[in-house]
Amino acid sequence: MGVVSYETEIISTIPPSRIFKAVVLDFPQLLPKVLPQVIKSIDIIEGDGGVGSLRQINFGGEGGSSMYVKERIEAIDEEKLTHSYTVIEGDVLMGKFEKITNGIKFDATPDGGSMIKSYSSYYTLGDHQIKDEEIQGGKDKSIGLFKALEAYLLANPDA
After folding, report:
1. Which residue, 46, 75, 118, 155, is most buried by CB atoms nearer than 10 A?
2. Higher pLDDT, 61 or 117
3. How far apart are CA 116 and CA 23, in angstroms?
4. Residue 57 burial by CB count (10 A; 0-12/13-18/19+): exposed, middle or buried?
């Protein structure tokens, strides 16, 4: 088994506490509204949605294929605006990964926006080597998710 890790930084115009709430606390209800073409539903399948809970993200949305990912919530710190979770099952593991750990931290920028720092670690099975394109694909999906959420929050100030 090998481990490949990378970090991504994203700048947002949304204040840290608001985007943390959207990305972490309101994620199961908000994301299917923001990306209905990609996300069919996000269900808490064990626990109350807090630390230790398991959630399942069902992909497919409007007319897509039925894929899923199951995640365990490792930490939620509303004071420090941090969150971490582990992908433990699902199509995203592709038989190549044992698990994928993810974390995110939201910091204020001088202009009132946010610096979002996310990290991912891929734990490979056997001698699988992760290609640069796979890492870039993961980064691009993360950036796309945050930008979609940011656009939704800007268009819906009460959300």
Report:
1. 118
2. 117
3. 11
4. buried
3-state secondary structure of 109: coil
How far is residue 67 from each of residues 11, 17, 60, 70, 156, measured CA to CA in Å? Answer: 30, 31, 7, 10, 29
Per-residue pLDDT reduced to its tens digit, 26-80: 989 999 999 998 899 999 999 999 999 999 999 885 555 679 999 999 999 999 9
The pair of three-digit structure tokens given for residue 60, joined into one six-digit string: 């497919």
- Return the structure tokens found at 150: 């940011």
The residue count for the chain: 159
CA distances from 105 to 11, 24, 83, 117 (A): 12, 11, 7, 5
What is the per-residue DSSP string for 48-77?
SSSTT-EEEEEE-TTT----EEEEEEEEEE
